[in-house]
Design goal:
about 55% helix; elongated
Length: about 350
């Protein structure tokens, strides 16, 4: 190495910088190739998205990039003549990369395992957005504390300050915290799950697409999204059409003349219902005399079962049209209009 008076010259520093940059770039490129090969091997060995190999591959996808860079920097410390100060900075960077990457691995792996296990056990928390927040907050908090310790920062005063300021923050974020704990209540009591069709009000109904840490999102039948505060779900009146099961009972009236043969009408109505796509044979459709004979007509009620509430309106409409065609073809006299109506 060329020196002048026992000190490095500008050319020496430039050469070391160029040498270290080329070494780090080359080592990183080789590491990236090895990383891609390892991930591909894991994917090839995986038996489905929920297999351990697939979960491990997804968890390592992003953090492994930092490992490649950390490996290149570590190799450079052995092959390039750095000063003690420069070495301390490089080692600090390597430690930071490792802490951040391990934190990302822990958070990602926990989320992936919970999602895979939850789908098999039908746990609503596994598919809700709030579950990811509940995992990331403590894991990232531990990673941040470890990172601050690496930089020589004492976290005790920070924790004390957070404790003192926690009360002021809680008062300022009262509504946000209320919705957060309401979300926790939803996770524990499970009045709803992702995929359920629910109704909060006549114009507030839809399929639950996500349960977040503050709000729950519903997808309506008109393909729009309703954002509902979690507290409204826990403190308000809720109708869940998927509990205890997704099957939905739908009723529609059948009105004919009071002189009609009720046995024939009942037979035609049942045949029309069972021949309509979307109507379940088990439980079977039933016809009730409700309210039965009135002063002007005979009114029956048909009760059918559909696979789920969503889409049952279309099935009900199809059954109604088929009943009208069947009654007309059989010559069944329609109901007389109310008095005064022509």
């Amino acid at each position: 190495m060329m020196t002048y008076g026992g000190k490095r010259t500008h050319n020496d520093d430039l050469n070391r910088f160029t040498q270290s940059a080329i070494l780090i770039a080359g080592t990183t490129a080789v590491s990236l190739v090895i990383r891609q090969w390892c991930i591909q091997v894991l994917r090839n060995k995986s038996k489905g998205e929920a297999s351990p190999a697939a979960l491990f591959a997804r968890a390592l996808k992003t953090p492994s990039l930092l490992w490649c860079l950390a490996a290149a920097m570590a190799l450079a410390t052995y092959l390039v003549d750095f000063s003690d100060k420069e070495l301390s900075y490089i080692r600090l960077g390597i430690a930071s990369f490792l802490i951040v990457s391990l934190t990302l691995v822990a958070a990602s792996a926990a989320i992936q395992i919970l999602a895979a296990y939850g789908r098999g056990q039908n746990l609503p928390i596994a598919t809700a957005g709030m579950s990811r927040a509940l995992i990331r907050v403590p894991v990232f908090g531990i990673g941040l504390v470890a990172l601050l310790r690496v930089f020589g920062m004492d976290v005790t005063p920070m924790l004390t300050a957070l404790g003192v300021g926690g009360l002021a923050v809680a008062l300022a974020l009262k509504d946000t915290l209320e919705n957060f704990f309401a979300g926790l209540h939803i996770m524990v009591e499970t009045p709803i799950s992702v995929g359920d069709f629910i109704r909060l009000a006549p114009e507030e109904e839809g399929t639950v697409t996500d349960i977040g840490w503050r709000t729950t999102r519903l997808l309506t039948t008109s393909n729009s999204t309703i954002v509902v505060p979690n507290s409204k779900i826990t403190f308000g009146i809720l109708v869940n059409f998927n509990q205890p099961g997704p099957k939905a009972a739908v009723s529609l009236p059948v009105c004919v003349s009071s002189r009609s043969d009720h046995n024939l009408v009942r037979k035609l109505v049942l045949e029309a219902a069972l021949s309509t796509e979307g109507v379940l044979a088990d439980p079977a459709p039933i016809v009730l005399a409700d309210p039965g004979w009135t002063p002007t007509h005979l009114e029956l009620k048909l009760v059918i079962w559909c696979e789920r509430r969503l889409g049952s309106g279309l099935t009900k409409s199809a059954v109604a049209f088929r009943i009208l065609d069947s009654l007309a073809a059989a010559g069944v006299e329609p109901a007389s209009p109310p008095a005064g109506v022509k």
